[in-house]
């Protein structure tokens, strides 16, 4: 039997094809051709590889004084028990209402004109030697003449308009030493073949939690809000990996 070997160009083309397929995630996309993107299972947020405990500057600790024979507890909003989330694992509703509108416009105009001239009309009587050295057309009174002009005009404009209004339930993942809560919320919604993923995380004060056990996203410190997804629409809107690499490497 004779063993056929691929030519060098063929091997190179095959290698490039395999590399492009793996780089673009084509193999993972081919597994879901004709199917909707799968939803992630419910997991412990603190077990995620990207989760890290939050460390913030803390005030000195002090004990909260208690009043004997009192029916009320400091910070309580209910007669028998405070119904708001206060412990790790308690569920809290986060309301996101973002309506940003920003417009920036810059315009710059620069202009510059310069002129320089140099001549040697008298040089200890040696100015007559200049035409002999440089030629008969050389004039000692105007040997060098420089002029320059430059103009630069720049115009830039940025206009942004964003509007997001929704609410989702999360949970307390950490109670900081100063009493503040670290909250994390994640929601997935699949519509046809498009999966929308919303994540919200941040630090809130216990007193900012309303009696309905809700809190506004603008009351979260170090807030991280992400609204995206994956599926057919997101795949068509995102440039291919090869195009992104060329855009970063090509200097033109």
UniProtKB/TrEMBL annotation:
The keyword Transcription regulation does not apply. It is found in: Cell outer membrane; Bacterial flagellum basal body. InterPro entries: Flag_Lring (IPR000527). One of its GO terms (molecular function) is cytoskeletal motor activity. It is a lipid-anchor. Residues 1-31 form the signal peptide. Keywords: Bacterial flagellum, Cell outer membrane, Cell projection, Cilium, Flagellum, Lipoprotein, Membrane, Signal. Its main location: membrane. Assembles around the rod to form the L-ring and probably protects the motor/basal body from shearing forces during rotation. Belongs to the FlgH family. The basal body constitutes a major portion of the flagellar organelle and consists of four rings (L,P,S, and M) mounted on a central rod. This is Flagellar L-ring protein.
């Amino acid at each position: 039997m004779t063993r056929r070997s691929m030519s060098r160009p063929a091997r190179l083309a095959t290698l490039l094809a395999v590399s492009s397929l793996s780089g673009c995630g084509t193999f993972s996309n081919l597994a879901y051709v004709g199917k909707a993107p799968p939803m992630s299972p419910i997991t412990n947020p603190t077990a995620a590889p990207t989760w890290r405990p939050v460390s913030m500057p803390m005030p000195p600790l002090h004990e909260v004084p208690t009043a004997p024979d009192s029916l009320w507890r400091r910070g309580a909003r209910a007669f028998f028990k405070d119904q708001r989330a206060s412990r790790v694992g308690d569920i809290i509703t986060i309301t996101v209402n973002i309506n940003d509108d920003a417009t920036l416009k810059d315009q710059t105009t620069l202009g510059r004109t310069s002129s320089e001239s140099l001549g040697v009309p008298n040089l200890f009587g040696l100015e007559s030697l200049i035409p002999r050295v440089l030629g008969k057309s050389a004039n000692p009174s105007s040997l060098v003449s420089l002029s320059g002009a430059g103009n630069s005009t720049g115009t830039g404009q940025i206009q942004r308009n964003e509007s997001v209004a929704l609410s989702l339930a999360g949970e307390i993942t950490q109670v900081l030493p100063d009493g503040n809560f670290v909250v994390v919320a994640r929601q997935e919604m699949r519509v046809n073949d498009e999966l929308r993923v919303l994540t919200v995380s941040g630090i809130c004060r216990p007193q900012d939690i309303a009696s309905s056990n809700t809190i506004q996203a603008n009351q979260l410190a170090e807030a991280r809000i992400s609204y995206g997804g994956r599926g057919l629409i997101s795949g068509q809107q995102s440039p291919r990996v090869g195009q992104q690499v060329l855009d970063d490497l090509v200097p033109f």
